[in-house]
Model the fold of this input.
Amino acid sequence: MTGSKEFRLAGPEDGLPCTNCGMVRSRADLDRLLWCQGCIDASRARAARLGWGIGVVVAILAALWIWLFAAPTDLVWGGWAASLVALLWLGARFGREITYGVYRARGGPKAPDALPGVERPPPGLR
Ligand SMILES: [Zn+2]
Done:
């Protein structure tokens, strides 16, 4: 049986293409969905930015609702402000996780190094 290549199991030294960007990576550098670290980082960064946008929208809508319908008195103004800050933070976190989940299911932004010869800024600057 030794020397037979038919039954050799694929080892960590064998490369596989990342299912998001297509770059061949070592199996050890791919996660369970076969994404490379660059794609994970790019998707996380973009999902975080989108999440903050969602959080801001949620906080603005809540502020409008408070202003128009709840009509806060001066006594509880600080409580309403704290609620808005909490909504902003929660909206950003939920938005980030949902956006990241959608990226993982459907394919997210490609890793910056996935396109050789194409100059792209680091994920944080886009
Ligand atoms: Zn990738």
User: Anything to note?
Assistant: The chain is about 50% helix and 5% strand. The pocket of zinc ion is lined by residues 18, 20-21, 23, 35-36, 38-39, 111, 114 (CB under 6 Å). The longest helix spans residues 37-70.
